[in-house]
Each structure stands twice: as structure tokens, then as C-alpha cells.
Amino acid sequence: MREVVRLVLYYDSDIKPHPRFEFDFSYITWLLRQIERRYRAKICIRDTRQWKEQSRRWLYGRIRRFALQHRVSIRCIYYNRRGDRCYIGREVPVLIVYRRKRIVGVYPHVKSGRLITIRNYLEKLLAK
Hints:
Strand content: 15-25%
CATH class: Alpha Beta
Structural class: alpha+beta
CATH topology: Glutaredoxin
Helix content: 25-40%
Distance between the termini: 10 Å
Radius of gyration: 14 Å
Strand order of the largest sheet: 2-1-3-4
Order of helices and strands: EHEHHEEEEH
Number of strands: 6
Largest sheet: 4 strands, mixed
């Protein structure tokens, strides 16, 4: 990560995330601070507690294009089976990685049948 990147974490401070996504807020923010120091990345943490459903769907639309281009699955994570409830930034926190104002990563996502969580990505980044 030689270039300056921006990592934006969206989460809801009132709702406990689903355990499947291994999201411990204090540990994730600690990892983000380590990345900020090591790589001089810009970190932004946004609380979506007061967001309306329309704002969540807008955020999903932003990351959907990235997912299609990179052949990663996100719908199964951020929507219920009927597609009428969006969990993004609520029960499922999301980390978006930007490089030069362009999305270059979205976590969690499913790639080749394997769930890659925010924690997986950040720990792997720090291990480099």
C-alpha cells in the first residue's frame, strides 16, 4: 500500500453486528489505527445509526459496481433473501477502501465461496 489510500468504515453503534462477520469494534478500530500509522492511510469511521433505508441502499449501489467488476459476491451479505431489507452498515458493518477516489476494496465479501471479513483483510494487510 505505497499510495495514500482512504479506508471508510460504516457501522451502527446501536446494533450488535452478526457474529458471522467477526466484528469487534474496539479491535477493528485498533487495526485501523495501526494501518493509519504504518501506511499513512486516511481512516474515516462513520456511524450509520440515524441513516434511513434509502441511504443504506445508496451505499450498496456504490459498492455494487465494484463487486460486479471484481467478481465478488455482496448481495448475499448485505440483503435478506427477499431483497427487501438492506443490512449494510447495520447488522453488517462495511469497510470501503479507496485509492484516488476510486473504490478498490469492499469488505466483507464472498470470493470463490469464501467469506472475507473486515478483520481478515486488516490482519492480512498488517501482516505484510
